[in-house]
Amino acid sequence: LRVQNAKLYLATFAAVLGPLSFGFVLGYSSPVIPELSKISDPRLRLDSNRASWFASVVTLGAAAGGILGGYLVDRVGRKLSLMLCSIPYVSGYIIIISAWNIWMLYFGRILTGLASGITSLVVPVYISEVSHHKVRGMLGSCVQLMVVTGILGAYIAGIALKWRWLAVLCCFPSCIMLLFMFFMPETPRFLLNQNKRSEAIASLQFLRGPHVDHEWECRQIEDNVEEEGFSILEFKNPPIYRPLLIGVVLMFFQQVTGINAVMFYAETIFEDACFKDGRMASVVVGSIQVCFTAVAALVIDKTGRKVLLYISGFIMALSTALFGLYFKMVLPTPSNSSHPDLLFTPGTESSLPWLAVVSLGLFVAGFALGWGPIPWLVMSEIFPLKARGISSGACVLTNWVMAFFVTKEFHDLITLITAYGTFWLFSAFCCMNVIFTAFYVPETKGRTLEQIEAYFRRS
């Protein structure tokens, strides 16, 4: 790493503490649901219906956070929006820690979801705007890397900590983010859009070091900054609506692969798949996700975005088909089920638990290589500056609404079309996302944000 990039990496690290908090929110439900399903207090005990709401209600908060984040990022800036996220993160966990009934648990999850929605919008935008094009892919992929690191951290901590103490631990990343972001600069593009040229130059000096032509980069950004306001009617223009449609469809396909349903219910899936220690299996899956997301971050600026999306989609399609085959081989018909509180009801002790582990591990690895980090990265790259807030908000809203439906209806979907039918449906969506990538997703490797915006204007 070059010395002149050191402060850029420091700013990125401060920002991705937000996605780390976001990961802890997502991972929190997996160890907590089995614990609260066995608790003696009926006011807090989670049956299958309560568990599905506990896991999925966070996505409703995140959908609202996407709308709020789209407003905040253009009004108060990228930096302050991130700092404000700490308030609902910490407030939500305090409510969970002090909860004495199920409604307090739900409300705490909604607040942490609200913060997660804002974070998932603002951090990719912040990183894309402070980075230069040679490392933007790597730094942008760190968003998803920190999300999966947070999920893994929640899984591991959940082995040793009870649910209230786990909530205490989950408060720390957002508090550290608040402290670090206080010393980081606002993005040059936002400052120039606010006609604050001297502050933008100071931001570039911090991010690029003293030995770079800051005036040249500042002029490049200024040439692309629209001084006039943005009207909703401008969405009829192809340079505005085309990247928005691409971003929205990418977010739709990311969720209908089934990733959030799998991660929310990771322990239960493995336990019901006859795997002896579901909690440790979840840790293994989380570790695979962290490793392959790191690999994606290292190679994305060399291979490009589309190649990784192809590889990722093919791997996920194969693995979900295999996982469906596993359940087809080991599970009875739904009419023979006598355990309605389980996601899946094995008929007999299976001799093929390795197929479930390999299939799910392969799915997670494939997702981590492409469809995990890249939709968020592309979202932060393709929108024009004047429409970045509202377009990003629409994408985040799409992502979290779909996450809610997939997570909340996962149990009902299994009842309706069986476990194997559900995973085969996910496999079909994985095939469709490869086709969409081939025809509609632009390659953004090696291009500045201004060049990407010019590409959509020309085409």
UniProtKB/TrEMBL annotation:
<feature type="transmembrane region" description="Helical">
    <location>
        <begin position="80"/>
        <end position="100"/>
    </location>
</feature>
<feature type="transmembrane region" description="Helical">
    <location>
        <begin position="163"/>
        <end position="184"/>
    </location>
</feature>
<keyword id="KW-0325">Glycoprotein</keyword>
<feature type="transmembrane region" description="Helical">
    <location>
        <begin position="12"/>
        <end position="33"/>
    </location>
</feature>
<feature type="transmembrane region" description="Helical">
    <location>
        <begin position="307"/>
        <end position="331"/>
    </location>
</feature>
<dbReference type="InterPro" id="IPR050549">
    <property type="entry name" value="MFS_Trehalose_Transporter"/>
</dbReference>
<dbReference type="GO" id="GO:0005886">
    <property type="term" value="C:plasma membrane"/>
</dbReference>
<keyword id="KW-0813">Transport</keyword>
<comment type="function">
    <text>Insulin-regulated facilitative hexose transporter that mediates the transport of glucose and fructose. Facilitates hepatic influx of dietary trehalose, which in turn inhibits glucose and fructose influx triggering a starvation signal and hepatic autophagy through activation of AMPK and ULK1. Also able to mediate the transport of dehydroascorbate.</text>
</comment>
<feature type="domain" description="Major facilitator superfamily (MFS) profile">
    <location>
        <begin position="7"/>
        <end position="445"/>
    </location>
</feature>
<dbReference type="InterPro" id="IPR005829">
    <property type="entry name" value="Sugar_transporter_CS"/>
</dbReference>
<keyword id="KW-0812">Transmembrane</keyword>
<feature type="transmembrane region" description="Helical">
    <location>
        <begin position="351"/>
        <end position="378"/>
    </location>
</feature>
<dbReference type="InterPro" id="IPR005828">
    <property type="entry name" value="MFS_sugar_transport-like"/>
</dbReference>
<feature type="transmembrane region" description="Helical">
    <location>
        <begin position="139"/>
        <end position="157"/>
    </location>
</feature>
<dbReference type="GO" id="GO:1904659">
    <property type="term" value="P:D-glucose transmembrane transport"/>
</dbReference>
<keyword id="KW-1133">Transmembrane helix</keyword>
<dbReference type="InterPro" id="IPR003663">
    <property type="entry name" value="Sugar/inositol_transpt"/>
</dbReference>
<protein>
    <recommendedName>
        <fullName>Solute carrier family 2, facilitated glucose transporter member 8</fullName>
    </recommendedName>
</protein>
<feature type="transmembrane region" description="Helical">
    <location>
        <begin position="278"/>
        <end position="300"/>
    </location>
</feature>
<dbReference type="Pfam" id="PF00083">
    <property type="entry name" value="Sugar_tr"/>
</dbReference>
<feature type="transmembrane region" description="Helical">
    <location>
        <begin position="390"/>
        <end position="407"/>
    </location>
</feature>
<feature type="transmembrane region" description="Helical">
    <location>
        <begin position="413"/>
        <end position="441"/>
    </location>
</feature>
<comment type="similarity">
    <text>Belongs to the major facilitator superfamily. Sugar transporter (TC 2.A.1.1) family. Glucose transporter subfamily.</text>
</comment>
<dbReference type="InterPro" id="IPR020846">
    <property type="entry name" value="MFS_dom"/>
</dbReference>
<dbReference type="GO" id="GO:0033300">
    <property type="term" value="F:dehydroascorbic acid transmembrane transporter activity"/>
</dbReference>
<keyword id="KW-1003">Cell membrane</keyword>
<feature type="transmembrane region" description="Helical">
    <location>
        <begin position="106"/>
        <end position="127"/>
    </location>
</feature>
<feature type="transmembrane region" description="Helical">
    <location>
        <begin position="244"/>
        <end position="266"/>
    </location>
</feature>
<dbReference type="InterPro" id="IPR036259">
    <property type="entry name" value="MFS_trans_sf"/>
</dbReference>
<keyword id="KW-0472">Membrane</keyword>
<feature type="transmembrane region" description="Helical">
    <location>
        <begin position="53"/>
        <end position="73"/>
    </location>
</feature>
